[in-house]
Known about the structure:
The protein is mostly helical.
Amino acid sequence: MTSLQTVTAFFGWTTLINFVLLAVSTIAVVALRGFISRVHAKMFGLDPVDMSRDYVRYIAQYKIAIIVFSLTPYVALKFMS
């Protein structure tokens, strides 16, 4: 059986790792927007103009997923211990 400290540590590390990935993704989209837009537009047959809106939507949805699936369980477990 897994202890409460182990599960809390797991959610803490997943939260940290996911927020680092979110930061790297955000920096990459901001710094390399033109290049990334062209590559993704060619890969998926999309309009490069619409890609900016899609990137913002991706970053927002990823942030919400991190909060719901990593940060919230971590905070709840910290309150329990």
